[in-house]
Amino acid sequence: MSGEPACPRCGKELRRSSATSVTIRACLSCGGAFLDNTATSRLMSLLPDDTLALAEGFDQAARRDVDTAKAIACPVCSRPMNRVHVKAAGVDIDTCAAHGTFYDRRELVTVARACKRVRAPLAAGVGAAAVGAAGVAALATAPSSDASARNLDTDTVELAADVADAAIEAASEGIFDIAGEVIGGLFEALGSLSD
Question: Does the residue 5 lie in any domain?
């Protein structure tokens, strides 16, 4: 035993693997992966190919199917994780605002690919004058005369709103610093959503 936590889905030991600047704790049995908040932020902002290849390898190596609908506990603190729907990726991920995110088999790669799709128009020069959850709410609900905001992909707004909702939920639990850090990192991952 290496001292790594157990997989919250199947109970097998999570194995630590690193690529670029991201450390993944993956289950070789069910293909699930746990990333702490810093690793998730780095992965979604950098989207390094070697890390995504590593995650795909874990997905392919998985030997058993598990019930992904049941609630799970954080592998670090054992508190119940919150289920967050990432609409742009079409998946539900399990989060602990204090420690990180557990991605079931294929979810990590699916969310990363959705992030790449969402960022593509932003990288091509489609910016939005919005910062933080209030800016996302304004983009999602108000008509705009700004052409760049009007052309903002719906998936971008929906993914940012999902992230904002998760951070607001975490903040309501009294975890303000971590929620701010998670929001900051994920908005950075979405191309900063600002000019």
Answer: no
